[in-house]
Structure formats: C-alpha cells, structure tokens
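In response to the reviewer comment on reproducibility (Comment 2.3), we provide here a single inverse folding case reported in full, input and output, so that an independent group could reproduce the run without further information from us. The structure tokens appear first.
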C-alpha cells in the first residue's frame, strides 16, 4: 500500500471530513462553523449557545407567527425554544459546511414533529460571523409552506 495512507483513512472515518478545519485561527468563520456543527451533532448545548454573539440576530421566513427578525441572543434563543416546543426538532444530518471569509452556511436535514406527524426537511442556515462569533442567521427552507404548516 501507499505509505501513510492508513492513518489518514482512519482519521477520515472517525471525523466527518466536512467537520475538519485546517486553518488554526480560532476566530475564522470555518473554525466557528465547524465548532458549532460539532456541538450540534454532539448535543453540546453549552458550546452551541456559546457560539452566538450577544447581538445575534435570527431571520425566519414564511408566514407563521415566528416569521421575521429576532434581534439579540436572548430573543433569538427564546424563539428557537418556542418553535422547538411547538414542533420538536431533531438533527438528522449535517450534509455540508460551506465557508467564506465573512461567514458560511450549514446544509442540514432535520426532522420536525407535530401532533404525531413527522417530516424530514432540507434546510440551509446561512451565518454571518464576526470576531469568532455567530452574529446573524437566515434559515432557508426547501419547503417553506410545510414549515409554516408545522409552525401554525
């Protein structure tokens, strides 16, 4: 075999490739988004919440009562909590982590459940990152009408 390939292949099996970031800068958007993605996958709520800046702003589309802009970490977290009580969310998979110099996006699949109905949705969470923190998020739905129905 090729020398040194074994350990590399083993590492790639242990850690999904899209969660490995090679730039060591702690405040780089790629580092922040991968830290966030790993915490989400691991169910590490403290690390997850710690990624949000104090002025974090959340944007939900659609026509439900949650649609609009939720400014400030506390308001955004309260909205996310309210939505999760109404239609509990379960992460199925982080499909991809996309990174730019000013932010990036997580492409995910989530299961939303309401009144015994369970739907797996494709979602894109686009983030703006500043000084090593998530400062803004836009939740983009593959089926906004379905989300509006589940969040009604």
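Designed residues, in position order:
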């Amino acid at each position: 075999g090729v020398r040194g390939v074994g350990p590399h292949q083993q590492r790639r099996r242990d850690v999904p490739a899209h969660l490995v970031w090679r730039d060591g800068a702690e405040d780089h958007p790629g580092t922040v988004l991968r830290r966030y993605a790993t915490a989400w996958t691991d169910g590490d709520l403290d690390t997850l919440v710690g990624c949000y800046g104090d002025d974090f702003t959340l944007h939900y589309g659609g026509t439900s009562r949650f649609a609009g802009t939720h400014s400030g970490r506390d308001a955004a977290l309260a909205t996310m909590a309210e939505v999760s009580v109404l239609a509990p969310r379960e992460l199925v998979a982080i499909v991809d982590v996309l990174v730019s110099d000013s932010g990036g996006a997580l492409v995910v699949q989530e299961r939303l459940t309401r009144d015994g109905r369970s739907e797996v949705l494709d979602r894109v969470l686009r983030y703006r990152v500043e000084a090593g923190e998530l400062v803004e998020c836009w939740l983009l739905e593959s089926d906004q009408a379905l989300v509006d129905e589940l969040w009604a």
